Amino acid sequence: MGNGEELSCSFVCKQLPLQLGPHTFPVDLYTLPVSGVEIVMGVQWLTTLGLVLTDYEHLTMKFIKEGKLVELKGQHRTTPQEATIYQIKRMIATNVIAEYFRLQLLPAIEELPNLHRDQKLREY
Prior knowledge:
Structural class: alpha+beta
Distance between the termini: 41 Å
Strand order of the largest sheet: 3-4-5
Order of helices and strands: EEHEEEHH
Strand content: 25-35%
Radius of gyration: 23 Å
């Protein structure tokens, strides 16, 4: 894993055809105990593509496959949305959630008269 942790793989699907848009890629998929994603395409897959031009701002990857230019486009994320109770239960059941926080926007605190900024911060 990217954080140095090692995960055990109990099953592998060899040369599974993965469809990305109109393009098919045969990939080996390893089952791992991770949550939050359906599939992770890592360096092992990227090395099969050869030279890749990546534009992180526009979320695109370009490379040559079978003599033709292929461009894969990512989707921009929407603003964060509240998790459903199903998603929270799944994270708890799969032991991928250690803490749960609820963030809520509060109205701004009005300025207090005759106090310096440092004093206000210490009082709160």
